[in-house]
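Progress report, Aim 2. The chain analyzed during this reporting quarter is listed below.
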Amino acid sequence: MKFIESIKNVWKIEELRNRIILTLGMLLVYRFGAHVTIPGIDAAQLEGLNSSTSTGILGLLSAFTGGALSRASVFALGIMPYISASIVVQLMGIAIPYLQKLQKEGASGQKKINQITRWLTIAICLLQAPGYLASLPALGVPQSAFLLGTGFTFYFSSVAILVTGCIFAMWLGEKITDKGIGNGISLLIMVGIIARMPAAFIQNAANRLEGNNVMLILFELVIWFVIILAAILLVMAVRKIAVQYARRTASGSYEKNVMAGSRQYIPLKLNAAGVMPIIFAQAIMFVPGLIGRSSFLKETATGAWLQTNYADIFGLVYNITFALLIIVFTYFYTAITVPTNKMADDLKRSGGFIPGIRPGSETSEYLDKIMSQITLPGSIFLALIAVFPALIVKIMGVQQGWALFFGGTSLIILVGVAIDTMQQVNSYLLNRHYDGLMKTGKNRKAIA
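Predicted structure tokens for the chain:
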């Protein structure tokens, strides 16, 4: 088979082979750390914690950490504090002139931004770690599980371990990005999500088999593959804006180049914001429940309604609000991350133009208009995929743990990271004159 031949070609390229081995080794270290319980906690008494973090919002957070959250692991915070810090720094870059200046300084500026992100990650960890430790008894960890008690010594050492674990995970991700293959941070999240998949599927399948619903299992798998294909289409879909370039004549003047192959395209992604709108919306969805539990509303009917409806991630009210927030944040994040002004300026400087559109501000307005038009269907499609787990739970009675893989943040991350990694491997193969892994790869056999 052609695919098997491509896999063999991967191992023929020494640099690519070494990068893949390094990546797999670091991912293995991360998965091993996810099973190491915080010193001072009896791992045999964590059944209650595992049960309370298997569904709902905590189940989603546990999936992102690969189950480390439910094991009170040294990696219990996972890589999410770093993700939160990156989002904050990115948003602050809109309003803070110093960060805007750094963004324009190229590699040196990006290095300083990365350092700011790391320090902010530590600050977020210092806030989250004590909160996580303090919540363990409420999440089902008995007092007898704390072998050293819950005094200052335990909290100080455990906070230091959790912060160190997050920083180590961040270091692993950065090393994978630099020396391995793919985006390291994304790969750490992906392997954490995948680690939960087999157990979730087996548990759901066992439940179906008890009711002799074998065909229902097959039907669920078909739906799962269809939603994966839909997520791939969302990630890969682009609107191509035709561009032409002027060519310089012998006399030094420029004229329109209409030769075959002179026309190129600006690819505008249907979902330029990626998974970020879902992450933003997910963070906001914690707020109504916190408001409902506040001292002002806790004993009122409004507070009870907020607690009830926004604690169930598969409920109707929760998912309608979730979908609307995703659409809003998709527009917001696309507006701040797709620099149509810069694209128009770069196009003008390179002698390019969109046929029928004047270079400069008119081109910028045209690109902004197109982005607004394609963002609407893209945001609606993203929102539908995000709330699909709730639909599959309500309509087909799929267990909640397995339903999380039918859409939402988990599926978009899995698809996006898998495609990005395959594209990087594909580029190595094509540069060495091998057939690529992906269908779009051209046959570039070496010339004898």
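The CA atoms of residues 22 and 180 lie 6 Å apart. The radius of gyration is 25 Å. These observations will guide the mutagenesis work planned for the next reporting period.
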